[in-house]
Amino acid sequence: QVLFPADRFICPELLNNCMGRELKVVEQSDQNSLLSQYELNAIPAIPDITGIPTIVDNALQENTSEYAFVDIGLAKDLIRIKRSIFNKMLQKAQTGDFSVAIDRVNQHKDARKDEVDIVTALEKFTTIRIKQRIEDTLELPPLPESARDIIRLRANPDASSEELSTIVEKDPSLSAQVVSWASSSFYSTSGSVKSVHDAIVRVLGFDLVMNLSMGLSLGRTLNLPTDEPERYLPYWQKALWMALGTTALIRKI
Questions:
Q1: If we measure between CA atoms, which residue out of 217, 199, 198 comes closest to residue 208?
Q2: What is the number of helices (H) and of strands (E) in the chain?
Q3: What is the pLDDT of residues 158-172, one digit of tens each?
Q4: Please, which pLDDT band fits residue 153 given cuts at 50, 70 and 90?
Q5: Residues in Cβ contact with 56 at an 8 Å cutoff, skipping those fewer than 6 apart
Q6: CB-based burial of residue 154 (10 Å sphere; 0-12 exposed, 13-18 middle, 19+ buried)?
Q7: Domains of the chain with CATH codes
Q8: In Å, what is the CA distance from 3 to each residue of 88, 95, 174?
Q9: Which residues contact residue 249 at a Cβ distance below 8 angstroms, ignoring those fewer than 6 apart?
Q10: Which of 12, 16, 132, 253 is most exposed, with the fewest beta carbons within 10 Å of its own?
């Protein structure tokens, strides 16, 4: 939770430098969950209300007026607190210089220039973003040996279950997963599964073990991005739905 005077605004770069972290704004869904947990309509600008760690801008404590008027998230309502009491409430919070006075921001009074300024800013941003995209090097991380072997085997139309079991058995965790799947109550296997080859031939089948092994091997290397836009499906989930939908459509055709 960040507290700062109403006549200033937060500079994210200064705040991150002050905290030594890469802070991000809380997503609306997480904020709504927090509000419902404490039965609040908005989080007031008071520390220790929800137990969230608080950082206070030094400019807020430099004010010497008798009262502090605190925002409680309602458009027209503020809470008036004696400055001495409010300063005591801020004693446990971390402090720093991370805000900039609004009157220091260069403004122009000619509203007709707004559209020109916006278009110019967008053009500059687009050019910079394209340049960054071109300069980015997008590479797949090195794959584990088991994944490379499975991919090579997948490309071989004459591959056998013996070759697949040999590859899987090289990876202890992978072979343990395959055997545990085959031994699970879901498949109701008669007798115990004694080896990976037994699991492939008698229970799971070649294609299923091939797909599961490839997924597990690649899953250790490829991670889902955590910065997808809010309310948008992660890429891999959407890709899986598209693949399943295409498979179903082909069967109908």
A1: 199
A2: 11, 7
A3: 888 888 888 888 888
A4: confident
A5: 3, 4, 47, 90, 93, 94, 95, 96
A6: middle
A7: 2-104 (3.90.960.10), 145-248 (1.10.3210.10)
A8: 14, 9, 50
A9: none
A10: 253
**Cα angle, residue 219 at apex, residues 143 and 185 outer, rounded to 5°:** 130
Distance CA 35, CA 26 (A): 12
Residues forming a β-bridge with 57: 96
H-only helix segments in 54-190: 58-61, 83-89, 114-135, 145-154, 161-169, 172-183
Say how far apart CA 221 and CA 58 lie, in whole Å. 44
In this structure, which amino acid lies at residue 89?
A: M
Amino acid at position 101, single letter: A
Structure tokens at 1: 């939770």
